[in-house]
Amino acid sequence: MMGQDEYHNEEPKPACRIFETGLAAFLEGEQRPEVVAHASECNSCGAVLGDLQQVITTSGLLGYQDPPARLWTNLRVALVSEGLLQDSVGFWQSWAAALTVFRHPAPVAAVACLALLSFAVVAPSRISVHSGAKTVQEIGSVTAAAAPQSAAVSSDLEQTVRELQTIYQERAVEFRPGVKAAYQRSLNSLDASIEECRDSVRRQPANGLAREYLLAAYEQKAEVLQSALESEDH
Amino acid sequence: LSPLKDAAPKAASEAQLIARAQRGDEAAFEELFNAHKRRVYSLCLRMTADPAEAEDLAQEAFLQLFRKIGTFRGESAFSTWLHRLVVNVVLMHLRKKGLQQVPLDDLDTSQEEPVRREYGDEDRRLTGSVDRVSLERAIAQLPPGYRAVFVLHDVEGYEHNEIAQIMNYSIGNSKSQLHKARLKLREWLRQTSRRGDATAGSASSAHEGTRVVSEETK
């Protein structure tokens, strides 16, 4: 909260008191000539008036901030769980659909954008809930370790995803059908994408892009599983 | 409500979107969400000064919006309807929180002492100090009651009669709290200006997190 500082006060003059009495009304747009007149004569009160006018002006210019990208993802899950949305189009299907053209060189850039976008959508930044096996922070360290050089999928990441998948399968029986279906569609799409990328890596081991997509798909699957496990409202 | 600062979707297309959303069309939900998410989230963030709370409240507000969208008949502008709903969600949250954590005086500031000021040569102008980042930090330092009135009036453009109705107190009280909030902001800005940017940065680390979150998502 606002702290207190040392004050070096002089005694306020009567005119300063009159200025203070009318200041709020003047700032609300009322005609208060005594406020303007005193502000032009008294440096201290003139400073107060000028600063408050600057605060008001700047406040009106404050912009808007983007919410975290996961806001829509979380909202969508909530809407599906309440039955307000029909999960007719799987969230990850567009991502997976894009990957199906991976063998053709031209759409690769678009696929990359979609993959990055999808990852941004689900990447939680304030997750602390334990899954029972590993936390997302641990997953993050695993993926970070795997990413820098070869962009290959480390065995740690594969193992983490397997563990998360096992826990998910145990818990998913308790999920509401709509929520479970929404997560399952996403996971199915990601599994298909992983297979697609693996196939590409097998055929072209030197294809760095394919390895990056494979890593991204694993990371996304880990995030989706973690998100499903920590969601409180199933 | 004063004119919105963001360019809202054109009335005709928005009406179509609303009609589609009322039929449960997901694409329409998403378009409405995208059209209003920044203002909704920013309002929640400024009124709570906490990114995590703001995210939860924005989600709750949109959830309520989509639950109630079937009842929207177009008697007021959609954005007005939405933002009133958001303000209600945030204020409900602040009131609940007030009962548990925040001293009631922070929500009802009518009994607070007047903001102190200096007289004489020590009270100099904040030349160049009221930049947007400093002001955002200062707003985050305000007590919740002052912050709510200030954000609604000076940032969001609500009138005092609207604020008084929303906050359930008199217009005079709204004006009084706004003035005190402005004076407190000035005082905070002056103090941080004296201490220097380094100290100001550490004093407002919580709000710094807000900016990081925002920049991460750009």
Describe this protein's structure.
The complex is a heterodimer of chains A (234) and B (218). Chain A is mostly helical and 234 residues long. Chain A is built from 10 helices and no strands. In chain A, α1 (14-27) crosses α2 (33-41), α2 (33-41) crosses α3 (43-59) and α5 runs antiparallel to α6 (108-122). Chain A is elongated and about 85 Å long. With 218 residues, chain B is mostly helical. Chain B is elongated and about 65 Å long. Chain B starts with 10 loop residues before the first helix and ends with a helix. At the A-B interface, α1, α3 and α4 of A face α2, α3, α6, α7 and α9 of B.
How would you sum up this structure in a few lines?
The complex is a heterodimer of chains A (234) and B (218). Chain A is 65% helix and 0% strand.
Characteristics:
heterodimer; A: mainly alpha; 65% helix; disordered N terminus; B: 218 residues; mainly alpha
Radius of gyration of chain B: 19 Å
- The residue-averaged pLDDT of chain A reads 72
Could you give a short account of the major beta sheet of chain B? none
Low-confidence stretches of chain B: 1-7, 99-111, 198-218
Q: Give helix % range of chain B.
A: over 70%
Radius of gyration of chain A: 29 Å
| Biggest beta sheet attributes of chain A | none
Distance between the termini of chain B: 29 Å
What is the end-to-end distance of chain A? 39 Å
Strand content of chain B: under 5%
What would you call the shape of chain B? elongated
Helix content of chain A: 55-70%
Structural class of chain A: mainly alpha
The string of secondary-structure elements of chain A, in order, is HHHHHHHHHH
The proportion of residues in beta strands of chain A is: under 5%
Topology, element by element:
The complex is a heterodimer of chains A (234) and B (218).
Chain A lengths: L13 H14 L5 H9 L1 H17 L10 H12 L11 H7 L8 H15 L13 H11 L8 H17 L5 H27 L4 H23 L4
Helix pairs in contact in A: 1-2, 1-3, 2-3, 4-9, 5-6, 5-9, 6-10, 7-10, 8-10, 9-10
Chain B lengths: L10 H12 L3 H23 L2 H18 L9 H23 L3 H4 L24 H10 L2 H12 L4 H8 L3 H25 L1 H7 L1 H13 L1
